[in-house]
């Protein structure tokens, strides 16, 4: 149980009511109350949400003398209106909250043949006084055991001089460091999604990256540093671990080809994918987008050392600057000034003699080689044959190659830990490093793991990432990827659609691959759906998913099935995930944003297709999954904003939606800086908050239609009809009262950040709120796009 200072958020409690055999008092005996008293603070009201039955919410009031009383916040059949609660322990030692009725005043209660009657499960318990009580799921900063630290597409590895391993995560947009010996991992850079394009010097903890794609360790005058190539930001950062500073080192942020002879920060790069540093301090850069290898010399100037800027496969035996490469994505350099280049698109490794400038093909026949690494003695070159899901080794003296890791039949998957590495399954490995002891470390990218091959016996094991089978991960420390939307499951669990915009290759593949499940009872993280298995609830982080692209919206049907919008290279669609059954595509529709389940048993969806922005719905029970029905669509060009013609709406980018019990639909128009109300029955619509195309912050306490919003990203309706708005650009949550249409900030100070847990909701910092879900009793869950976290606040009705 958490200490009172943590405000007892998310207690793992179960709520029971005692029946009795005939003639026996219904109250628990002293023997039943194994733990007396409570760590909950007196004089503070606590909201307890019951997952079953009826999704009831009660308020628990603790008096100063330790007495406890409760009353329903929303009436639910079968619950008494007066009673007492107390803490106890289950036979397994797990804390529970027991409820028993003050039946003594009514005489003995006789319930034949019933000893204990389970009323429901408490999904959360937290102060009911408008405080941000806890970050339910989100980025971690403290060291974690390696097998509990979730990784998201690790793609590059490097060892520091003190033995620490540095990992670049493309999917989580961050750099991690693993301590030697303990295997504990912590982030070096700010663990947020897709950092802003700024090049100012900053603290490591404040640095936001976009797509870290390459690493190289640097040691100078006893100070340890890491150079990080950011493929999307088109540049290179120097992370000075000794001074805790990050400095922009090369690139302008523009993806263009530029001439030689300029300083690093004035030279455009185009998709830097790999780095290597020679002993003389020269930094070599695989500039994949320009099909070149470039060098940032010790004089601070950049020059081309290989590739003429044209995609192709030529130049062996001649000057490297006249040769043609195809998207090089791996580099290694030895002490004899031999530069090894993974010429990825040409399926070969080439060698450049830096003394003579001549290029040759060294190692043909590799399937899209990426990461390269040299053994400590310089005799062996390792390469990831990414599309074969293998790692190969080449003896540079004998020119003989062999497979050192990966299945002999080139099968992809996750298997083999504890056995021979050359029989294990990998999944598109992309990064390599050789440890101080000669062990080979592999960034098993699409398995979201780092694995180690033992130099003594050739066995392989997972060192970082994933979880033991059947072992859930702590959501508070393990939220990967970039959360977008949140929905409530039938048992009070939180379902998160996640977005991982991972650019790989010239096709720019977008891969999301996960729907997450956060259990508010025990704070663990799981997944919905796993590659090659039936969809359902599975503990831990899946190595893949039945879903093929980034998740934008998620909704849960009354039967517990989960619907998620899913972008792929073939288009966008809605996938249905049901426990015990396979994933089924329910709808094919372009540019889907959000989903919501209606009380009418139909699935509502938003599409922001250019020129045809649509609100539609689908009856999954219909033939072949149902035929989509367009309810509202974009008004013709030139339609006045005040003309509310039936079923035609002037909107710019409909992003988030929710429905009232009566079927009225609310939509957040993000780029239109407004919120709309739509009536599918009549076709009428109205702009109820914000001023179309005018962003800003104003209007608290007044009519919502006169207020200013800034990029509202989502909406959620509570049981009273009040509407909560994720005012993303203002880093606030605002509430519109159903009774009078006024708007008020209920959470967020307007300052971007992550501070404020345990304090007043209006003083807390939020970081780009983009998703909302509301439970009865004012329990609001907030997804933060910039903070990569899920937070919870209880907003009392005043």
Task: Describe, in plain words, how this protein is organized in 3D.
The strands form 14 sheets. Strands 37, 38, 39, 40, 41 and 42 form a 6-stranded antiparallel beta sheet that branches. Strands 10-14-13-12-11 form a 5-stranded antiparallel beta sheet, with no helix packed on it. The protein is an all-beta fold. 1% of the residues lie in helices and 42% in strands. It starts with 14 loop residues before the first strand and ends with a strand. It contains 1 helix and 62 strands.
Q: Oligomerization state of this entry?
A: single chain
- The dominant shape is elongated
Distance between the termini: 30 Å
- Strand tally is 62
Largest sheet: 6 strands, antiparallel
Q: Note the beta-strand portion.
A: 35-45%
| SSE class | mainly beta
Low-confidence blocks of residues: 1-126, 501-512, 529-548
Radius of gyration: 29 Å
How many helical stretches?
1
Helix content: under 10%
**Global mean pLDDT:** 76
Task: Offer a quick outline of the entry.
With 798 residues, the chain is mainly beta. The chain is 1% helix and 42% strand.
Which helices and strands, and how do they pair?
Blueprint: E1 15-18, E2 45-50, E3 57-62, E4 68-72, E5 84-89, E6 95-100, E7 116-120, E8 122-127, E9 132-137, E10 144-145, E11 154-159, E12 165-169, E13 174-178, E14 184-187, E15 202-203, E16 212-220, E17 223-230, E18 235-240, E19 245-250, E20 262-263, E21 272-277, E22 283-287, E23 292-296, E24 301-306, E25 330-333, E26 338-343, E27 348-353, E28 358-364, E29 369-374, E30 380-385, E31 390-395, E32 401-405, E33 431-434, E34 440-444, E35 449-453, E36 460-464, E37 473-474, H1 475-478, E38 482-488, E39 494-499, E40 515-519, E41 524-528, E42 537-539, E43 551-556, E44 562-568, E45 571-577, E46 584-588, E47 592-597, E48 603-609, E49 612-618, E50 629-634, E51 648-649, E52 654-659, E53 665-669, E54 674-678, E55 685-690, E56 712-717, E57 723-727, E58 732-736, E59 743-747, E60 769-775, E61 779-784, E62 789-794
Parallel strand pairs: 1-6, 50-51
Antiparallel strand pairs: 1-7, 2-3, 2-8, 3-4, 5-6, 9-62, 10-14, 11-12, 12-13, 13-14, 15-19, 16-17, 17-18, 18-19, 20-24, 21-22, 22-23, 23-24, 25-26, 26-27, 27-28, 29-30, 30-31, 31-32, 33-34, 34-35, 35-36, 37-41, 38-39, 39-40, 40-41, 41-42, 43-44, 44-45, 45-46, 47-48, 48-49, 49-50, 52-53, 53-54, ...
């Amino acid at each position: 149980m958490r200490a009172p200072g943590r405000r007892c958020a998310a207690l793992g409690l179960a709520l029971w009511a005692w029946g009795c055999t005939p003639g026996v008092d219904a109250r628990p005996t002293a023997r039943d109350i194994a733990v007396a008293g409570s760590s909950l603070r007196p004089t503070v009201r606590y909201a307890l949400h019951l997952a079953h039955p009826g999704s009831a919410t009660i308020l628990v009031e603790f008096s100063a003398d330790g007495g406890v009383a409760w009353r329903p916040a929303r009436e639910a059949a079968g619950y008494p209106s007066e009673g007492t609660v107390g803490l106890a322990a289950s036979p397994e030692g797990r804390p529970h909250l027991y409820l028993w009725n003050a039946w003594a005043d009514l005489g003995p209660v006789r319930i034949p043949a019933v000893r204990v009657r389970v009323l429901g499960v408490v999904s959360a318990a937290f102060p009911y006084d408008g405080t941000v009580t806890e970050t339910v799921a989100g980025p971690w900063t403290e060291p974690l055991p390696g097998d509990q630290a979730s990784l998201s597409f690790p793609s590059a590895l490097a060892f520091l001089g003190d033995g620490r391993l540095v990992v670049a995560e493309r999917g989580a947009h961050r750099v991690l460091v693993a301590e030697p010996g303990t295997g504990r991992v912590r982030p070096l850079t700010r663990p947020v999604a897709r950092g802003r394009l700024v090049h100012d010097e900053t603290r490591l903890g404040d640095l936001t990256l976009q797509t870290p794609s390459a690493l190289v360790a640097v040691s100078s005058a006893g100070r340890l540093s890491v150079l990080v190539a950011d493929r999307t930001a088109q540049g290179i950062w120097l992370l000075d671990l000794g001074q805790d500073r990050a400095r922009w080192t090369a690139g302008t942020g523009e993806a263009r080809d530029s001439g030689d002879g300029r300083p690093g920060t004035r030279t455009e790069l185009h998709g830097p994918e790999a780095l290597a540093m020679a002993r003389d301090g020269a930094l070599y850069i695989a500039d994949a987008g320009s099909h070149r290898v470039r060098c940032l010399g010790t004089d601070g100037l950049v020059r081309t050392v290989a590739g003429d800027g044209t995609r192709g496969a030529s130049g062996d035996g001649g000057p490297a600057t006249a040769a043609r490469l195809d998207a090089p994505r791996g580099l290694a350099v030895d002490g004899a000034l031999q530069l090894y280049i993974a010429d990825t698109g040409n399926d070969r490794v080439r060698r450049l003699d830096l003394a003579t400038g001549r290029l040759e093909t060294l190692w043909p026949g590799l399937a899209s080689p990426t990461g390269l690494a040299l053994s400590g003695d310089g005799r062996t070159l390792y390469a990831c044959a990414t599309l074969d899901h293998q790692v190969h080794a080449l003896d540079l003296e004998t020119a003989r190659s062999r497979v050192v890791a990966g299945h002999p039949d080139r099968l992809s998957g996750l298997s083999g830990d504890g056995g021979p590495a050359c029989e294990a399954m990998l999944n598109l490995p992309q990064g390599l490093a050789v440890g101080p002891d000669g062990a080979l470390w592999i960034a098993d990218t699409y398995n979201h793991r780092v694995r180690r091959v033992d130099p003594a016996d050739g066995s392989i094991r997972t060192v970082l990432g994933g979880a033991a089978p059947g072992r859930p991960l702590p959501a508070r420390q393990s939220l990967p990827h970039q959360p977008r939307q949140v929905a409530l499951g039938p048992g009070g669990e939180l379902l998160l659609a996640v977005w991982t915009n991972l650019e790989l290759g010239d096709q720019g593949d977008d891969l999301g691959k996960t729907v997450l499940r956060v259990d508010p009872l025990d704070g663990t993280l799981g997944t919905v759906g796993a590659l090659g298995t039936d969809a359902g609830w599975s503990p831990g982080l899946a190595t893949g998913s039945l879903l093929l692209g980034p998740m934008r919206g998620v909704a849960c049907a009354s039967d517990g099935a989960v619907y998620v919008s899913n972008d792929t290279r073939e288009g966008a669609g809605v996938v249905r995930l049901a426990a015990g059954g396979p994933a089924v595509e329910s709808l094919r529709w372009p540019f889907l944003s959000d989903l919501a389940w209606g009380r009418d048993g139909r699935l509502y969806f938003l599409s922001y297709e250019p020129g045809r922005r649509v609100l539609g719905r689908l009856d999954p029970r219909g033939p072949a999954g149902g035929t989509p029905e367009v309810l509202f669509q974009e008004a013709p060009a030139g339609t006045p904003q005040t003309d509310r013609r039936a079923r035609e709406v002037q909107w710019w980018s409909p992003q988030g939606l929710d429905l009232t019990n009566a079927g009225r639909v609310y939509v957040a128009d993000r780029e239109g800086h407004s919120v709309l109300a739509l009536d599918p029955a009549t076709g009428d619509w109205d702009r109820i908050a914000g001023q179309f195309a005018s962003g800003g912050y104003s209007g608290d306490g007044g009519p919502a239609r006169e207020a200013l919003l800034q990029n509202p990203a989502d909406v959620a309706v509570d049981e009273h009809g009040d509407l909560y708005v994720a005012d993303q650009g203002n880093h606030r949550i605002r509430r519109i009262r159903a009774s009078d249409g006024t708007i008020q900030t209920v959470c967020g100070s307007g300052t971007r950040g992550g501070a404020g847990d345990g304090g007043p909701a209006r003083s807390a910092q939020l970081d780009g709120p983009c998703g909302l879900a509301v439970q009865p009793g004012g329990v609001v869950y907030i997804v933060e796009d910039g903070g990569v976290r899920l937070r919870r606040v209880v907003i009392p009705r005043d």
